[in-house]
Amino acid sequence: MKSRTNALFAALAIGLAVPAAAVETPREARINFVDHGGIRDWRVVDRDTLLIRGTGNRWYKAELFAPAWGLNFAHAIGFDPGRGSGTFDRFSSVIVEGRRYPLRSLVQVEPPARKNA
């Protein structure tokens, strides 16, 4: 009886693990040549999220580790790839009003809806 119960629990555990493994997580992205025009535009989503347009009209969502005070009103921000690589990725930072805000993640997303002017 005990072996049947153990087998049942093992089967349940495997059955519960399969759907979790099937969930697709976004893959971390990178924007090359940041120091040579690799970033074309950016939009603020909220205090800790930006949409960034790279070359080839590809869009990325950058999430910061902490809210960037003043981001909603910034006319200019800096993109610091760090490490001298020229590649902007999840190990990079955004600079707002002289303060550095490290990224939590950078993933490629669909282009945002166009604003009606």
| SSE pattern, N- to C-terminal | HEEEEEE
Question: What is the approximate shape?
Answer: globular
- Specify the structural class: alpha+beta
Low-confidence stretches: none
Strand content: 25-35%
Compute the average pLDDT: 83
Strand order, sheet with most strands: 1-2-3-6-5-4
Number of helices, where a helix is a run of at least 4 consecutive DSSP H or I residues: 1
Record field, number of beta strands: 6
Task: Calculate Rg over CA atoms.
Answer: 20 Å
- CA-to-CA gap between the ends? 72 Å
**Helix proportion of residues, in percent?**
10-25%
- Major β-sheet annotation: 6 strands, antiparallel
Tell me what you see in this structure.
The chain is of the alpha+beta class and 117 residues long. The protein has a domain at 34-109. Helix content is 18%, strand content 32%. It has one helix and six strands. It has one helix spanning 2-22, and strands at residues 39-46, 49-54, 59-64, 78-80, 93-96, 99-109. It has a six-stranded antiparallel β-sheet, with no helix packed on it. A hairpin with a 4-residue loop joins strand 2 (49-54) and strand 3. It is globular and about 35 Å long. The mean pLDDT is 83.
Task: Provide keyphrases for this structure.
6-stranded antiparallel β-sheet, 6 strands, globular, 117 residues
List the helices and strands and how they pair.
Blueprint: H1 2-22, E1 39-46, E2 49-54, E3 59-64, E4 78-80, E5 93-96, E6 99-109
Antiparallel strand pairs: 1-2, 2-3, 3-6, 4-5, 5-6
Give a summary of the structure in a few sentences:
This protein is α+β, with helices and mostly antiparallel strands and 117 residues long. The chain has one helix at residues 2-22; strands at residues 39-46, 49-54, 59-64, 78-80, 93-96, 99-109. A six-stranded antiparallel beta sheet has the order 1-2-3-6-5-4, with no helix packed on it.
